[in-house]
Amino acid sequence: MEFGESLRLSLRAVRSHKFRSALTVLGVVIGVAAVITFVTLGTSLRADVLGQVGGERAPNVYVWAGPEGQNGGPGAGAQPVLTTHDLDQLRAIEGVESVVPRGLVPTAALSAENDTVAQRQVIATSPAYFDPGDFAAGRSFEQGRREVVVNQQATSLFDRHVGVGQNVTVRLASGDSVNATVVGVLNASEGGGAFEGLGSSEPLVFVPTDPFYGTTVEAVRSYLEDESDAARLVPDDYVFSVETDQDLVDQLEELLNTLTSFITGIAVISLVVGSIGIANIMLVSVTERTKEIGIMKAVGAQNRDVLQLFLLEAVLLGVSGAIVGIPVGVAGAYLAAEYIGLDLVLPYDWFAIAVVVGVLVGVVAGIYPAWSAAKTDPIDALRYE
Amino acid sequence: MAASDSGGSDATSDRGEATDREETTDRGNAVELRNVRKTYYLGEPVHALDGVDVSIPRGSYTAVMGPSGSGKSTLLNLIGCLDTPTEGEVWVNDREVSALSQRERTEVRGEEVGFVFQTFNLMPKLTAAENVSLPLVFGGVDKNERRKRARELLEDVGLGDRVGHRPNELSGGQRQRVAIARALAADPSIILADEPTGNLDQETGEQIMGLFQRLHDEGNTILMVTHERPIAEHAERVIHVLDGTVERIEEIESPRRVETELV
User: What whole-number distance in Å separates Cα of residue B164 and Cα of residue B151?
Assistant: First the structure.
């Protein structure tokens, strides 16, 4: 029996019970839609997070020394052991475009006008730390000048928001105070690099290493004077960590994948329920059409012809469930993405997977009913009323 | 369709081969049953057929009569390859079908046998033309060919204007004529009719008998089960079956003729 004819007959069988077929398909529609929704959201979320992390920062490599096995992001437990000599050495390595130092300067407080707030630390680095596009206002500080850059969160530390051009006083942990001018405010989305924690909402204040770092790390500096190699400064149980943005991206991706597959697993359960629905309705269909099976066999239908007809009918139900489920799932993801404020990224390969799953669901659900139809004895079937 | 032929008139195509292959069957027989026994085990053995020898010559018109439970239907099912005998041999068109695999028997059913049932047994969702071409669908006949053949056959039984109708849009007589057209679709060696007028009023029944008469005149082999004497008298011979055995074979001197075919 030709496939086209088989398809036509099966299609007619499906269409002759429109309402019943629709209800049966609904189970698969819900399953596929749920999978597509979650996968689409997962994909969109990943694209969103990776878009923030990846992109321009991707070629960055973070280096720090911290206790071995220390948990947390880059810079966790970092100790100030890298010297200017080390920086020069690193800069000399082929392929390294620039080396940006970063250190924490312990502080007691920040004051703007008469308003003083407690601030544990400021970040000392070089102007190369910033890209011109990072600034919502102003510019980067310059080395050797008393200038600071703050992020959005830091501007609202004070009763009256600080802005570009305003003077702030940084009270160092040593008791000294340094007056400086705010020269730049970062974009809201710029939480700083990986060291600051991605998407961190901490208020951050950036200062140039000169003069800030130099004055505060005096003790360290003297400690360093004899040994210019950081390796010697590192306590025995400390290790150097070298991490690129890509490593970070990979970790995030792994986390998102785990989350997505967990939710998808739940959605797959509804697919299983859907296929049980198809199997059930196919069994009913076979019983109902026992007489037709008898007629077909009487006029020369082979067992495999009958098998093919019923299997195809089940597959049609499964596939139509998938085909309806995909746009429903995308619509669900769209609404959820709108609500969360994500940009929708469509996982096109999953649409193909959904159709394949529809076929599989049909085959799995239809195989037993179709087999029992094929095995029907024609004499009994013709007698069946 | 190489192995089938339309009836007695040109039934010479594969005789030589059949003769060489197996012990000789009567050359003129479309169907032959040799000492056929069919036993059902329903707690105790029940012999539906108990040693039946019957020959149906090519081009003949035979009726089978007997009370219910006498084994008529079993006989028909065995010839139609729907069932296999417990003992004995069934030959259809010089092939021993009782020895074939299920798959081969299905092929014989599609190509050598045409069924006409009391309850018509049409596919309810298919049109008249689709019903008629169903045996050809399973026989692997090309779509255009099928369409052409179905139309011809329906015109032949006087339903040329009902090609696209579904069974529920047709009268009982028209349905039975669709069923007869379907039985003829694969150009079978024998037409098996099981009480073909049982669900029809007398006038319509006569029309159907007229149709069978014409098919017989055209050379088709017909075997018809009935329990109505007047219907059986349209045949040339009547096989009387009782308790699973052939009681007697009656030759009808002058079979009844339907004079006006009301098609």
Answer: 10
Query: What is chain B's alpha carbon radius of gyration, rounded to the nearest angstrom?
Result: 18
The complex's ipTM?
0.85
Instruction: Tell me which of B68, B78, B82 to substitute to probe the interface with A (most A C-beta atoms closer than 10 Å).
Output: B82
CA distance B235 to chain A (A): 24
- pLDDT tens sequence for chain B (263 residues): 344 444 444 444 444 444 443 444 445 789 999 999 999 888 888 889 999 999 999 999 999 999 888 888 899 999 999 999 999 999 998 899 989 999 999 999 999 999 999 999 999 989 999 999 999 999 989 999 999 999 999 999 999 999 999 999 999 999 999 999 999 999 998 999 999 999 999 889 999 999 999 999 999 999 999 989 999 999 999 999 999 999 999 998 888 888 765 54
Q: Which residue of A has its CA nearest to B101?
A: A302
Pick A298's closest partner by Cβ from B111, B115, B139: B115
How many CB atoms sit inside 10 A of residue A313's CB?
30
**Cis peptide, bond prior to residue A347, ω within 30 of zero:** no
Kindly state whether A96 is in contact with chain B, defined as any CB-CB distance less than 8 angstroms. no
